[in-house]
Amino acid sequence: MSATTAAAVLDRAGLDALVAALAADGFTVVGPTVRDGAIVLAELASAAELPYGWGTELEAGHYRLVRREDGAAFAHTSGPQSWKSFLHPQRERLWSADRTPDEGLRVREERPERPRYAFLGVRPCDLRAIAVQDRVLAGGRFADTGYRERRSGAFLIAVECTEPGATCFCVSMGGGPAADPGYDLALTEVASASGHRFLVRTGSAEGERLLGLVPHRPADTTTEESARESVTAARERMGRAMPPVDLRALMGASLDAERWGEVASRCLTCGNCTMVCPTCFCTTTEEVTDLTGDHTERWQRWDSCFDLDFSLVHGGPVRSSARSRYRQWLTHKLSTWHDQFDSSGCTGCGRCITWCPVGIDITEEVSALTEEVSALTEETQS
User: Fold this and answer.
1) In angstroms, what CA-CA distances link 3 with 45, 81, 177, 206, 285?
2) Of 51, 108, 199, 263, which is least packed with CB atoms within 10 Å of its CB?
3) Nearest residue to 25 via CA among 199, 212, 201
4) Is 248 helix (H, G, I), strand (E, B) or coil?
């Protein structure tokens, strides 16, 4: 997909009409809504279910909803879920088998009818995360057919960020609050004295077709300037930043750093960071049988490199310590991911910081490693 330069404006009624048009077109519309004290991603019956008037307060190990006076629908940061939950579900049945007196062993591959998703509210960091998972799961010799089928029919509506959170650091990872190409439609919300509206750009022929089905008007200069200024201002208000160093080289030079032991003393190895990460993709398989032994199923489920059994081989796990498991996660995410997939595995969304129960901050850890390696280098040279 390639972004076009055409821009239009939707009001709230136009956004309602867009959700209705997507549903009428056979899409399952998924977007942010308020549930159980958080912004979660769920199927939407209408745009009225969007979190109008809600924002978020974030810090390391801290997340709270806060009320906003402007009634904005997308002035919040990412919640605990990402679109990975729908494209690469947490648990999926691969096949089942039955033993019958007449037919013997009968194996059935699972071929469910997969929904056509329309994702409303894809943040730029998550748009980049989807592109990363496309390389990992939809390409190469061992493509995940379930992911590829769900992804091929997905309609992406990006929403540019105007309110970055205290744990966001996308700019320092080469991204930003503006949406990269890869969307079908891109929205920038403007809530001001001039009215509540959404600047919309099309990024595909399908996006143009859907926009043509809903009431909209040509973009005016005031709305375009307000949208541009809001996104530019957001770029300057990131809550966190990675240090400006070569992260691949840093990870390779810090394998024996003392900092790994310090962070391991705090890490619970709970795997929360991998569960909320929009790019972590590791899975395992398990067989489940009934009590008769005549029926069995194979399921694929998410796994985590923080799990003690993740590196289990004959004789025990390869990475038995918290230190080795945290180091594996961080070095793979920031360094060896490049070797496998030609990109970083981190988009700077900050979820791993927010949803870590002990508040471990990936940017703080990388800064500490940078200082330790620099100090050792200076000591060696002197």
Assistant:
1) 28, 27, 16, 12, 39
2) 108
3) 212
4) helix
Neighbours of 66 (CB within 10 A): 10
* Inter-CA distances, 358 with 81, 169, 204, 271, 318, Å: 19, 19, 42, 12, 25
CA distances from 157 to 22, 49, 102, 269 (A): 11, 16, 51, 35
Average pLDDT over residues 290-306: 94
Report the C-alpha gap between 1 and 4 in whole angstroms: 9
- One-character DSSP codes across 90-148: SEEEEEEEEEETTTEEEEEE-------EEEEEE-HHHHHHHHHHIIIIISSTT--HHHH
Residue 330 burial (CB < 10 Å; 0-12/13-18/19+)?
Answer: buried
Helical pair 362-381 and 322-331, crossing angle rounded to 10 deg: 90
If DSSP codes are grouped into helix, strand and coil, which group holds residue 217? strand
Counting beta carbons within 10 angstroms of the beta carbon of residue 11, is it exposed (0 to 12), middle (13 to 18) or buried (19 or more)? middle
Count of CB atoms within 10 A of residue 16's CB? 17
pLDDT tens-place string over residues 204-249: 999 999 999 999 999 999 999 999 999 999 999 999 999 999 999 9
